[in-house]
Amino acid sequence: MKRNIVIAAVTAAALIGGGTATALATTGDDDRGTAPRADVSVSDDDDGGVRDEAEDRDDDRRDDAGAASAKVTAAEAVASALADTPGTAVSAELDDEDDDRGDDDHRERAAWEVDVLAGDGTWHSVRIDPVTGKVLGSEREDDEDDTAEARTALKGASVDAAEAAKAAAGHGTVTSVELDEDGDRGDGKPAWEVETHGSGMGEQDWRVDPKTGKVTADRSHDSDHSDDAHDSDDD
Length: 235
Known about the structure:
This protein is 33% helix and 23% strand. By secondary structure, it is an alpha+beta fold.
């Protein structure tokens, strides 16, 4: 009897209020009943980093594929860029596609992007075809604030970007080389940072001494990954 009264009251309230009413009906005539079940939702963010790891693996596979398809090495790309724009190459990176263009139909073609510091202190970004080695284009960059730092870091250096890439090439296909003016974690010792990709090896990072050409493994990235994993465990 009580159940019928409750249902009738709820129905009347819904009709009068014009809304939707929800009631918990007991299974017996007394006040004892089954406690309501709480809805539990799981956020996509609570995946323990599995999604991020999968995306990282996909990125590595794309980078490996891009490195394998490039016929022009980092050293050759640097040489082509300097032939077009004389100066000092400070970085070279294999860009498999330009994600900043917004959609797949309007992305720029894959290319080596070489940053060159000209003798007059101006910066230029030169794009090199990774298959033919031809210059695809060049544009001036507004990086004048970095000029003094780059020149200080390269003072007394006998190893340039192309030579640093060649030195690390024995560890895999070089996909980027960049001058680190401040040194590893700001230790004040400049170095060339080189990234390589090898079949089944994924991304590896190396440091090349600009004076001696000595190649050592860059452990700073390993430390960063360990810190991220520790933070993930804490979460």
